[in-house]
Structure formats: structure tokens, C-alpha cells
């Protein structure tokens, strides 16, 4: 069975299921007793709502489940986690990504005892996908995005002031910016996909163009397809990693080379014309799903399968 046939066996998420994507912003207060504001027994913290797109009857359920998960394990600033929501309370499958962001001045350690003003500068950002599963595939994008929201969080007054804020306007786009970008790139750069997949092997890729949003989409796509972690199996200084990638797939890329991808209103152009049949086959899979009924979760799984295939060939 070919690589393309293997990937086509993935069951795409029903299009009717990926309509609801919600968010919630909470102030995180450690060592406070506020049972009425979403604290789980013994959690040692409370979550007070700042703003949310989730209906109230559902929001408190999300808050309780996320708080319970937080109390059961370690949580690090800037590193998000994904949890599956209770199927008895939410359409199955449903997931929530949550990430703790500390907007206090740098250098303040967790061992120090900040005043109430400092405590209120810690926030928990929560993104919810109702009736869908796969947010864990986008953790890298979501971690970067939550870091980008830090200046917006710092602007919030102590009395919250979420409605009409820059944070509200920006966070509404979380799904579009960090998940749906895959469908936009495939639609825009469909004829360049084999080159883009091949280019992802290279360590140095420069994206140029006047449309900053499209350029952001493309950078995310290239990062998602990046084989940087796989390169660690080889010697990045000598270029042996790039040679090993070519061993079974033909996706040879010299980590020392530089490739430019230029974005225009009508598509993108890649300065390197190198590709392989392997990259062309996987591009066909992305195009087959990305142009008919695009499902970003399916597309991201296809990208991950592509990377795993390359990784296996590198180890042979």
C-alpha cells in the first residue's frame, strides 16, 4: 500500500462538527479560597472569569473541568495543555486547550509572595473545540499565539474591562489564525505544495511578501512541516541530516542552504525548484482534502504522518 493510500484511510472530521470554537479568559489567583469562582477542592488556586464566548451554562462546566485537570498535575507558564471534555456533558469529542500566562515583570519568581495586584496579572487562556478532536496537534501554534497575547492581557484594567478591548477583538480569531491557516495555505499555494514540503527540510527559509497575514500563515505551515526535530538524528553542522532524509524518500535538503518563499495575492513562489515524488504524493493527499471539504484537523494529521514517514526512513 502506498503512502498516499495509507493517509487516505484517515477519517476526516465531519464538516458539520467543526463549527463551534470558543474561548475563555480567566484571572488566575493562587492560594485563594474562592469556591464560587471555579476553584476545585484542594486546587490551591481560583479562576475568575474575565471574558468568554462560551454560553454561561457551558462556561462554568469548562472552568470546573479545566480547574480539576490543573489541580491534578503540573502547569507551567507559557506551555499549554489539552484535555478532553466530559462526553456526558459535551458533544463527543470535545477538547479544551489551556495555558497559564504570567504578565508580571520579568525576574519575579514563583517562590516570591506578590501582592494582590501582581497575582491578578496571571491569566489562564482557554480555547475550546466543541464536537471535534485534534487541538493537541496545534499545541505549538497555540503556545506561540498565547505568548503573542501577553501585551493585550497587560492592557486590561484591574476591573477586567474585557468588552471592547483589543484582547477581545484579537482572541476571537484564535481558531482562524492557528488552525484554519492550513486550509488557506493549501488553497493559495496548491501548485507549490510539493516544493513547500521539500523546502521544510531546509533549516533556513525566508518568507517575504506585503500581505503580513498570508505570510504568517505560510510561516506556520512551514514550521508545522519542519523536520528540525528529526534533524537531531544527524549532524546538522556537517549536513549529514539532510542527506539521511534523502535516504528513502528523495527529500534531500541541505540544512545549510537558504530558500526564499515569496507571497503574493495570487499565490506563492519558491526560489528552490527541488522536490521529489514522495513530496508530490503527500501534496496530493493535502490537495485532495484541502480543496473539497477542507478539515484542518485532518490536514494537520496528514502533515504529521508525512513527518513520521520521513523519520522512519531516516532511521533505516
Number of strands: 8
Distance between the termini: 19 Å
Which stretches are poorly predicted, pLDDT < 50 over at least 5 residues? 3-19, 33-42, 107-119, 232-244
What summary fits the major beta sheet?
5 strands, antiparallel
Element string (H = helix, E = strand): HEEHEEHEHHHHHHEHHHEEHH
- Strand percent estimate: 15-25%
Radius of gyration: 21 Å
Q: Report the average pLDDT across residues.
A: 78
Number of helices: 14
Shape: globular
Strand order of the largest sheet: 2-1-5-4-3
- From the helix content, strand content and strand pairing, which structural class follows? alpha+beta
Please estimate the helix content.
40-55%
Short overview:
With 316 residues, this protein is an alpha+beta fold.
Describe the structure.
The protein is of the alpha+beta class and 316 residues long. The strands form two sheets. It has a five-stranded antiparallel β-sheet, sandwiched between helices. A three-stranded mixed β-sheet has the order 6-7-8, covered by helices on one side. The protein is globular. The chain has helices at 3-8, 56-72, 116-119, 139-148, 150-155, 166-171, 174-178, 181-188, 193-199, 212-225, 228-231, 240-249, 277-290, 296-315, and strands at residues 21-30, 45-52, 81-84, 95-102, 122-129, 204-208, 258-264, 267-270. Helices cover 41% and strands 17% of the residues. Strand 7 (258-264) and strand 8 (267-270) form a beta hairpin. Helix 9 (193-199) crosses helix 13. Mean pLDDT is 78; it is low at 3-19, 33-42, 107-119 and 232-244.
Amino acid at each position: 500500500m502506498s503512502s498516499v493510500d495509507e493517509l487516505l484511510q484517515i477519517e476526516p472530521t465531519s464538516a458539520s462538527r467543526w463549527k463551534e470554537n470558543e474561548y475563555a479568559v480567566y484571572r488566575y489567583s493562587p492560594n485563594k479560597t474562592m469556591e464560587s469562582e471555579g476553584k476545585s477542592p484542594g486546587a490551591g488556586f481560583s479562576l475568575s472569569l474575565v471574558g468568554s464566548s462560551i454560553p454561561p451554562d457551558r462556561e462554568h462546566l469548562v472552568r470546573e473541568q479545566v480547574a480539576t485537570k490543573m489541580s491534578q498535575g503540573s502547569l507551567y507558564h507559557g506551555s499549554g495543555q489539552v484535555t478532553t471534555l466530559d462526553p456526558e456533558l459535551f458533544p463527543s469529542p470535545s477538547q479544551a486547550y489551556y495555558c497559564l500566562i504570567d504578565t508580571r515583570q520579568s525576574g519575579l519568581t514563583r517562590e516570591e509572595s506578590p501582592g494582590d495586584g501582581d497575582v491578578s496579572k496571571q491569566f489562564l487562556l482557554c480555547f475550546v473545540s466543541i464536537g471535534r478532536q485534534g487541538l493537541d496537534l496545534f499545541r505549538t501554534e497555540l503556545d506561540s499565539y498565547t505568548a503573542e497575547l501577553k501585551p493585550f492581557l497587560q492592557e486590561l484594567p484591574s476591573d477586567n474591562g474585557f468588552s471592547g478591548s483589543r484582547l477581545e477583538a484579537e482572541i476571537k480569531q484564535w481558531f482562524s489564525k492557528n488552525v484554519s491557516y492550513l486550509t488557506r495555505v493549501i488553497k493559495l499555494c496548491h501548485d507549490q505544495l510539493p516544493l513547500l514540503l521539500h523546502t521544510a527540510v531546509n533549516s533556513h527559509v525566508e518568507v517575504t511578501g506585503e500581505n503580513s497575514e498570508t505570510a504568517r500563515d505560510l510561516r506556520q505551515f512551514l514550521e508545522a512541516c519542519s523536520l528540525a526535530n528529526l534533524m537531531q538524528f544527524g549532524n546538522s553542522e556537517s549536513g549529514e541530516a539532510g542527506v539521511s532524509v534523502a535516504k528513502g524518500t528523495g527529500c534531500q535538503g541541505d540544512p545549510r542552504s537558504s530558500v526564499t518563499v515569496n507571497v503574493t495575492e495570487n499565490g506563492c513562489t519558491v526560489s528552490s525548484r527541488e522536490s521529489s515524488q514522495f513530496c508530490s504524493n503527500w501534496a496530493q493527499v493535502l490537495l485532495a482534502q484541502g480543496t473539497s471539504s477542507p478539515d484542518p484537523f485532518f490536514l494537520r494529521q496528514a502533515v504529521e504522518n508525512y513527518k513520521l514517514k520521513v523519520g522512519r526512513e531516516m532511521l533505516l
